[in-house]
Amino acid sequence: MYFGAHISIAGGLPNAPLNAAKIGCEVFQMFTRSPRGGWVAPLDEAIAKQFKDNCKEKNQKEWVIHAPYFINFSSANPKIKHGSISVIRQELERGTMLGAAYLMTHLGSYKDLGPEKGFKALIDGLAESIKGYKGTTQLLVEISAGSSNAIGSTFEELGKIVHHPKLKNKVGVCYDTQHGFVAGYDCRTPQSAKATLDKFDQEIGLEYFKMSHCNDSKTDFGSHADRHDHIGDGKIGLGGFKSLLADKRLAKVNFILETEDDKVVQDLEILKKIRG
Description:
276 residues, TIM Barrel, two-stranded antiparallel sheet, 39% helix, globular
């Protein structure tokens, strides 16, 4: 179990592991391009080698990529739908060049097509994204907070995605502690953390729990409002993270902070202290 944070690639991709090491990361997450579209950071074998050399020099154990925010496989807009498919495939290929373990993505919203047509479009889009893909970076779908018809806020739905015949054994899950909490999955006590992981295992399978975004919540349990807070400062509380991290079933899962820069170093120190 290693801890890290979302890291800037300002100045070029090879800077990410250097920036990660500066704040005490053991693992890290990054965008390889602007999360809102537009300019894409160049990547070739020389840049990829420099990036991986820097990861090794700074003793980073694992690194992962977050897909851009505009991904929506269930959009009625063909440009957004096909753009989502194209970008996910590009990011998987870029991830393979960089040696990234995972690419995680938000799935979008059903607001255009509704749940039935939207789910079919989602599966078809995900399947198209990985069709013929031979790389080493695995695609993960992230649990959503569930606001505005966001896809993937229940373990049941995530299970249907992960185990769909078109995707089986090809897609894993990124569990965001804040999203899960506001979607209705509690972890504030050892008992509730165990119940949540039991439910995840029942509906999806803990073997698909590949990594976690580690965020406290500014908003209430079951509120479906996506607002991250620093570890111990929010509604989950320090006890919740102690309960979750103590479960031996997560012993080899890595946790990535997505908290604000002002206290992210302190958040990392808290997590390491809990682990210690």
